[in-house]
Design goal:
The protein has helices at 37-55, 71-79, 84-101, 118-130, 159-165, 204-216, 230-245, 276-280, 285-293, 305-331, 339-360, 365-382, 389-405, 417-432, 436-448; strands at 2-5, 10-13, 21-26, 59-64, 134-137, 140-143, 180-185, 200-202, 220-226, 250-256, 259-261, 264-265, 301-303, 451-456, 459-464. 48% of the residues lie in helices and 15% in strands. With 465 residues, the chain is α/β, with parallel strands linked by helices. It has a four-stranded parallel sheet with strand order 4-3-9-10, with helices on both faces. Strands 5-6-7-8 form a four-stranded antiparallel sheet. A three-stranded mixed sheet has the order 12-11-13. The chain is globular. It is built from 15 helices and 15 strands. Strand 11 (259-261) and strand 12 (264-265) form a beta hairpin.
């Protein structure tokens, strides 16, 4: 398996720190609002990476942190006249709902919260001060950027360029404009924790270094996140972690590309800002997951309603293929494979091999999805009610196993579009015949299957819930 390492700017063979085990840390959300479609991309991409490692037989420890103390959270709490804890709890629960809709492996994800590791952060900072790599100014503790070796090696920037070009807080307290806060002195009315430097709270960058080290060790296999986090967040994580431990922080750095909306950068000012909850009102979130995997994770992708409709239709074709194989399993002959069917079995194994090769090549989910469609096309063309049940079972198992690696085709008893349209037509005829009891029964049946109908002047519209 090869992964593109942002640190070296090339694909490298993946070799874990501990044979048979993989440690992955993915930067999670600051929980002050609902996550948007751009936030969903690393969630889905790196969950898929975790799934593929599990498929290959690795034991995986996977972490997605929650930043539950931050200026944005405090400001939100002040606006709503509540506590930062209430805000954090509300949006953590909202995150988990979205993650469930996107079929994230939530039950196997470790979700540390920054506020649970305050003591470890204080100890980490004390260690940096002892090394002369951090300094206290009236309760504010800063990391001394000049104490870091090879600062800028991840983002490929040098300190001089960063000082002149980066957006940094202007502060006369800092020895260097690029020095960043490890501990922030509490302002009046803000939440705080006691520390050797007075009342305060941690800076943003320190939390990921501390949680990663505490839960996964000094050196982890993979650190992942959106490409916008390369600088300053990930760069600063490397600086403080490697200065303290004098060991590599992460062996592989993976970053997904950004997402545009209607060919423009997503922003609230342009009115093209979509939360995952917004999208769920119009589309099944499985279609959003499918969309986010339809291109290579390092390629920029464009979100639009038209694209989501295409993804929904494509996903429907996969479900049709699944249902067709389920039908054939009932009809197929319970016998050994003949010579021709043995050749077909080889074709199925070829699709599996191509899928694995694509995923081994820096998580190429786009080509992996193409292999699944080829498998469905093959099954529709070559299998029938007279096929050996063993052959049909092999195709069915391959479809489910490969789709599960991508987190797709996970819904049980999915009602397909053709069935929905057929029931809608029957309901329309029942209403014309004034058989309102039957019409209501059909509406209720569809609702039980997660389909909501809306009677409009243009006709009956439907959507999944």
């Amino acid at each position: 398996m090869k992964l593109y390492n942002t640190l070296t700017r090339k694909k490298e063979e993946f070799i874990p720190v501990v044979d048979g085990q993989v440690s992955i840390y993915t930067c999670g959300p600051t929980v002050y609002n609902y996550i948007h479609v751009g936030n969903a991309r690393p969630m889905v991409v790196f969950d898929t990476l975790r799934r593929f490692f599990l498929y290959k037989g690795y034991n995986v420890r996977y972490i997605v942190n929650f930043t539950d103390i931050d200026d944005k959270i405090i400001n939100k709490a002040n606006e709503e006249n509540t506590t930062f804890k209430d805000i954090a709890e509300r949006y953590i629960e909202a995150f988990k709902e979205d993650a469930n809709g996107l079929n994230i492996y939530e039950e196997k994800t470790i979700h540390p919260r920054a506020t649970e590791f305050i003591q470890q952060m204080i100890e980490f900072i004390e260690g940096l001060i002892e090394k002369g790599a951090a300094y206290n100014v009236d309760g504010n503790v800063y990391f001394n950027i000049e104490s870091a070796k090879d600062y800028g090696k991840l983002s490929k920037k040098n300190i001089e360029d960063l000082v002149s070009g980066a957006r940094v807080e202007v502060s006369e307290e800092k020895n260097n404009p690029m020095d960043f806060a490890l501990w922030k002195k509490a302002k009046p009315g803000e939440p705080y924790w006691e520390s050797p430097w007075g009342k305060g709270r941690p800076g943003w960058h320190i939390e990921c270094s501390v949680m990663s080290r505490t839960l996964l060790g000094d050196t982890i296999d993979i650190h992942a996140g959106g490409e916008d986090l390369q600088f300053p967040h990930h760069e600063n994580e490397i600086a403080q972690s490697e200065t303290l431990t004098e060991k590599p922080f992460a062996n592989y750095w993976l970053h997904n590309a950004m997402l545009n909306v209607d060919n423009q950068k997503m922003s609230k000012s342009l009115g093209n800002f979509f939360t995952v909850k917004d999208i769920a009102k119009e589309f099944d979130l499985e279609a959003l997951r499918f969309f986010l995997l339809s291109a290579h994770y390092r390629s920029q992708i464009n979100f639009s309603r038209e694209v989501m409709e295409q993804m929904s239709n494509a996903l429907e074709r996969l479900y049709n293929g699944k249902k067709n194989l389920e039908y054939l399993l009932e009809k197929a002959e319970d016998r050994e494979l003949n010579e021709a069917e043995n050749n077909l079995l080889n074709d199925i194994e070829k699709f599996e091999k191509e899928f694995i090769e694509s995923m081994d090549d820096d998580l190429n989910t786009a080509d992996a999805i193409a292999s699944i469609f080829e498998l469905v096309k093959f099954s529709n063309s070559n299998l029938n009610g007279k096929s050996s049940k063993k052959l049909v079972q092999k195709s069915y198992d391959a479809l489910l196993e490969l789709s599960n690696v991508l987190g797709l085709l996970n819904k049980k008893d999915e009602i397909l579009e053709d069935e929905i349209l057929d029931l809608i037509e029957k309901r329309t005829m029942a209403r014309k015949n004034k058989d309102f009891k039957l019409a209501d029964e059909i509406r209720d049946t569809l609702k039980e299957k997660g389909i909501i109908l809306e009677d409009t002047q243009e006709g009956v519209k439907w959507k999944r819930i």
